[in-house]
C-alpha cells in the first residue's frame, strides 16, 4: 500500500477528509459492541444452547480479560518504536484478528456445552484483546493529529457521531439480516461476517486518511527531548487523586451498566415473554439506541 507523503508541518487546520477518516475508526468498536450487547447472550443461550450460568461466565471472563489487556496494551503502544510510528502497527496488525474473532463468535462449533464454553471463552478473549489493540491506539491518535484544544474537540465530535451512528446502523443491519436470512444459525453467522467487515475496513480507512498528519507529528516527537517517565503506580496515583475525574468515572460506570443490562435482557423480554419475532426485537433495539 502506497501512502501519501508526510507534510513538514501539521500546523494547518485538519481537513474534512482527515476528520472523516479519523471518525470512521469508531465504527468497528461501536457496531460490534451494539451487536454483542443486544444479540450475543441470547445467541449463546437460545441458539448455541448454553446454560445461562455458562453463557454469563463467557461474558464475565471476556470483561475480566479486557480489564487486564487495556493497561498492558496501552503501555506497550506508548513504548512502540517503528517506521510506522507508535499507533499504526497496532491498528494494522490488530484489524484482521479483530474482525475474524468477532465473526467466529457467532458459530456453533459443537453440541457439547463444555466444548462450546471453552470455544466462546477463548474466542471472546481474543476478540477483546484485538479490540483493545486496535481501539486504544486509534483513540490515542487524537493528540498526534492536532495540538489545538478546540480542534481536538471537533475531531472527537466526528468520532462520537460515527460511533452513535454505527451503533444504530448495526441494529438496523440486524433487522435486515433477520428478515432476509431464514435459518436461525445462518442469521447469526451472517451477522458475524458483516460485523467482522465493519471491524477491518474502518481501521484501514483511519490509517489511510490520517497517515500524513500523524507521521509529521511522529517526526517532531522524535526530535523533541524525552519527557520524564512515570511508573505505572505513579500514573495510577495521579489518576485517582483527581476527584472530579473519579466522580465522572463512577457516574459513567453506573449509567453504562444500567444501559447494558437493559439492552441485554430486552431480547428475552420481547422474544421469550411477549412471544414476538426477533425482527420485532430489532425495532425495539433501534428505538433504544436512538
What would the keywords be for this entry?
globular; single chain; 290 residues; mainly alpha
What does this structure look like?
The protein has helices at residues 16-24, 26-47, 52-79, 88-104, 113-139, 142-145, 149-180, 184-223, 232-240, 243-273, 278-289. It is globular and about 60 Å long. It has 11 helices and no strands. The protein is 80% helix and 0% strand.
Brief write-up:
With 290 residues, this protein is an all-alpha fold.
List the helices and strands and how they pair.
Blueprint: H1 16-24, H2 26-47, H3 52-79, H4 88-104, H5 113-139, H6 142-145, H7 149-180, H8 184-223, H9 232-240, H10 243-273, H11 278-289
Helix pairs in contact: 1-7, 1-8, 2-7, 2-8, 2-10, 3-5, 4-5, 4-8, 7-8, 7-11, 10-11
Amino acid at each position: 500500500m502506497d501512502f501519501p507523503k508526510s507534510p513538514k508541518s501539521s500546523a494547518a487546520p485538519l481537513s474534512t477528509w482527515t476528520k472523516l477518516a479519523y471518525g470512521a475508526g469508531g465504527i468497528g468498536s461501536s457496531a460490534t459492541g451494539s451487536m454483542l450487547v443486544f444479540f450475543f447472550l441470547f445467541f449463546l443461550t437460545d441458539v448455541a444452547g448454553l446454560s445461562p450460568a455458562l453463557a454469563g461466565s463467557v461474558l464475565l471472563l471476556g470483561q475480566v480479560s479486557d480489564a487486564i489487556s487495556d493497561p498492558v496494551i496501552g503501555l506497550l503502544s506508548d513504548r512502540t518504536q517503528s517506521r510506522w510510528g507508535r499507533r499504526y502497527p497496532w491498528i494494522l496488525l490488530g484489524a484482521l484478528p479483530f474482525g475474524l474473532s468477532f465473526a467466529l463468535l457467532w458459530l456453533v462449533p459443537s453440541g457439547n456445552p463444555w466444548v462450546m464454553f471453552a470455544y466462546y471463552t477463548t474466542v471472546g478473549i481474543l476478540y477483546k484483546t484485538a479490540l483493545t489493540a486496535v481501539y486504544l491506539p486509534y483513540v490515542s491518535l487524537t493528540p498526534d493529529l492536532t495540538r489545538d484544544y478546540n480542534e481536538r474537540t471537533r475531531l472527537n465530535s466526528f468520532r462520537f457521531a460515527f460511533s452513535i451512528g454505527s451503533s444504530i446502523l448495526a441494529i438496523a443491519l440486524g433487522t435486515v439480516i433477520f428478515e432476509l436470512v431464514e435459518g436461525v444459525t445462518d442469521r447469526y453467522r451472517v451477522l458475524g461476517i458483516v460485523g467482522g467487515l465493519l471491524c477491518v475496513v474502518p481501521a484501514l480507512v483511519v490509517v489511510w486518511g490520517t497517515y500524513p498528519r500523524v507521521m509529521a507529528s511522529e517526526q517532531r516527537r522524535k526530535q523533541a527531548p524525552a519527557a520524564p517517565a512515570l511508573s505505572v503506580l505513579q500514573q495510577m496515583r495521579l489518576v485517582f487523586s483527581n476527584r472530579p475525574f473519579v466522580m465522572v468515572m463512577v457516574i459513567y460506570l453506573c449509567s453504562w451498566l444500567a444501559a447494558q443490562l437493559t439492552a441485554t435482557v430486552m431480547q428475552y423480554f420481547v422474544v421469550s415473554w411477549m412471544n414476538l419475532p426477533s425482527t420485532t426485537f430489532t425495532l425495539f433495539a433501534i428505538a433504544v439506541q436512538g
